[in-house]
Amino acid sequence: MNHKPIPKDAIVPDTPEKESFVRGLVDRGEASRADKEGKLPSGVTHEVVGHAPSGLPIVIERRKKLF
């Protein structure tokens, strides 16, 4: 299996606070993998770059959400 290194600015859900944050991103549809061209779907703010042992995604922020 080919594993890329996790970027140092990635949010790894390894504490209860980070787990809650990542679960919220997933529940709101704000985390997704990029497509083949590196683009994220509309409304997605965080790119999934891997998965933690808990099964939750490891994410990096790619764009800000404007309210």
Explain this structure:
There is one protein chain. The protein has one helix spanning 16-27, and strands spanning 31-32, 46-51, 57-61. With 67 residues, the protein is an alpha+beta fold. The protein has a domain at 16-61. The longest helix has 12 residues, at 16-27.
Give a quick summary of the entry.
The protein is 18% helix and 19% strand. By secondary structure, the protein is α+β, with helices and mostly antiparallel strands. A three-stranded mixed beta sheet has the order 1-2-3.
Protein traits:
67 residues, single chain, alpha+beta, 3-stranded mixed sheet, 18% helix, 3 strands
Sheet with the most strands, sense and barrel status: 3 strands, mixed
Nearest-angstrom radius of gyration? 12 Å
Order of helices and strands: HEEE
Structural class: alpha+beta
Q: What's the average pLDDT?
A: 91
Oligomer: single chain
In what order do the strands lie side by side in the largest sheet?
1-2-3
- Low-confidence stretches at least 5 residues in length (pLDDT < 50)? none
Shape, per Cα inertia axes: globular
* Fraction of residues in H or I helices: 10-25%
Distance between the termini: 40 Å
Q: How many strands in all?
A: 3
* Count of DSSP-assigned helices: 1
Strand content: 15-25%
Region (Disordered): 1-48
Biased composition (Basic and acidic residues): 15-39
